Amino acid sequence: MSTRRPFATLLTGAALAASAFLGSAQAQDTVAIRKALSERVPQMQQIDEISKTPMPGLFEVRIGTDIFYSDAKGDFLLQGELLDTRAKRNLTNERVTKLSAIDFASLPTQDAFTIVRGNGKRQLAVFADPNCGYCRRFEKDLKGIDDVTVHVYLYPILGPDSTEKSKNLWCAKDKGRAWQDWMIDSKPIASAKCDTGAVERNVAFGRKYKITGTPTLVFADGTRIPGAIAAADIEKQLATVSR
User: Fold this and answer.
1) Which CATH number is 209's domain given?
2) How far apart are CA 55 and CA 161, in angstroms?
3) Are 53 and 125 in the same domain?
4) Do 54 and 89 meet the contact criterion of CB atoms below 8 Å apart?
5) Where would you tag: which of 16, 44, 93, 152 has the fewest CB atoms within 10 A of its CB?
6) Could you list the pLDDT tens digit for every one of the 243 residues in the chain?
7) CATH number for the domain including 82?
C-alpha cells in the first residue's frame, strides 16, 4: 500500500504551516512594539490594541479612539492619516469613524426631547449647546430635512451660561418649540424650574463617549459626525442609513 500523501494535502499542510508562522511572527512583533513603546513613551503605558495595517511593516497602535502607527520594533512612532492612494480611501478616518460609533439603541432617549418632521421615520440624535454658533447653523439647515425624528440632547460645554440656558430649555413646556425659537429666531429663553438631572446626565454621557464638540450628530447606524454639516450631507447620510 502506498504511503505517499496526495499533492493537494501537502499543499494544504504547507499553507497551514505558513499561516501559523506568519501569525507567530505578528504576535512577536506586537509584543516587541508594546514593550518598546511602554518603556520609552510615558503616554503608551495603556495600549488597547496593536494590529497590522495594509502597508507592509506598519502597525496600528490604538489607545481608545486615538490611532498611532509604528514600525515592527517600536523604534519609530507616527501620528497622522494613512491614505490608500490606489483606492482613494482615508484608512485612518475610516478606522476612527468605526471606533467612535455609538450604538443608537444605547442613547438615553429619556434625557432628550424630540422634534418630528413629516412621518418621522428616519432617526437622528444631536448633542448641542445653546450657545454654539455652529449648532444654530445646523438647526437652520435641518429645517429643510423632512421625514425625520431629531432627538436633541442638551449638552452645555461652553460655559456656565450654557448650563443655565440648557436647564431653562429642558424645563420649558414645549421644549422643541423653545429650542427652535432660541436657535433659529433668537427669541429669549424663559426662566423655568424643574428636575434638570437630564442635563447633567447628558454631560456625563458625552464625556464617557468623548464627545468634545457641538454639534455632534449620531445616526441610526451608529455613525458619529462631529460638527455642523450641510442639509445635502444630512440627507445623504440619512438616505444611506435607511437603505
Assistant:
1) 3.40.30.10
2) 48
3) no
4) no
5) 16
6) 445 556 555 555 555 444 444 455 567 789 999 999 999 999 999 999 999 999 999 999 999 889 999 999 999 999 999 999 999 999 999 998 888 889 999 999 999 999 999 999 999 999 999 999 999 999 999 988 999 999 999 999 999 999 999 999 999 999 999 999 999 999 999 999 999 999 999 999 999 998 999 999 999 999 999 889 999 999 999 988 866
7) 3.10.450.70
123 and 79 in a common domain: no
Q: What's the whole-model pTM score?
A: 0.73
Cis peptide before 215 (omega within 30 of 0): yes
- Give a yes or no: residue 5 inside a domain: no
228, 114: one domain: yes
- The residue assigned the cell 504551516 is 17
Residue 237, C-alpha cell as written in the block = 447620510
Contact 129, 228 (CB under 8 A): no
Q: Is 52 exposed, middle or buried (0-12, 13-18, 19+ CB in 10 A)?
A: middle
Are residues 90 and 140 both part of a single domain? no
Would you say the C-alpha torsion 113, 118, 124, 128 has a positive or negative sign? negative
Q: Which three cell numbers stand for residue 132?
A: 454654539
Given 81, 99, 117, the domain boundary residue is 99
- Angle at Cα 213 formed by Cα 237 and Cα 223, nearest 5°? 25
Instruction: Tell me: do 238 and 134 sit in the same domain.
Output: yes
CB 58 within 8 A of CB 72: no
For residue 206, give the C-alpha cell.
Answer: 458625552
